[in-house]
Amino acid sequence: MAGFLDNFRWPECECIDWGESRNTVASIVAGILFFTGWWIMIDAAVVYHDPEKLNHAFHTCGVFSTIAFFMINAVSNGQVRGDSYGEGCFGRTGARIWLFIGFMMMFGSLIASMWILFGAYVVQKKEVYPGLAVFFQNALIFFSTLIYKFGRTEDLWA
């Protein structure tokens, strides 16, 4: 799973060499998605500042998604495979556990945001935009995590 995008090929174009700029493109796209997710949530928090329209506890999902983003991307694919990391307290097993906890937090935040959307807004027949903002924030952070984690090559600093 660590290199499932390694065989992905961009359409051939003489004007751009995508092979050398894959890390740059993946980082920019992930950053734009991450920024857009937080921008949507900040917009909803400003427009719906009344706790009856947007409960302040709903921001917790985005915070946990952001923490999971950093947890998942703190572990390189080489550490998970055991290629570049064999020392420390836990070694490869510790890196895999850390990555697993990060993905659990990410999926938990995404599922909780869906529950907030449907449980607090759709079923209650309230205005849906605050719930959509919570959901889209977490979905965009989730996709930015996947693009940043699996869209780059290992030789980022080479």
From TrEMBL:
GO terms for biological process: late endosome to vacuole transport via multivesicular body sorting pathway. It comes from the Eukaryota. Coiled coil: none annotated. It is found in: Membrane. The keyword Methyltransferase does not apply. The keyword NAD does not apply. Keywords: Membrane, Transmembrane, Transmembrane helix. It is a multi-pass membrane protein. GO terms for cellular component: membrane. The chain crosses the membrane at residues 28-48, 54-76, 97-122, 128-148. Belongs to the UPF0220 family. This is Transmembrane protein 50B.
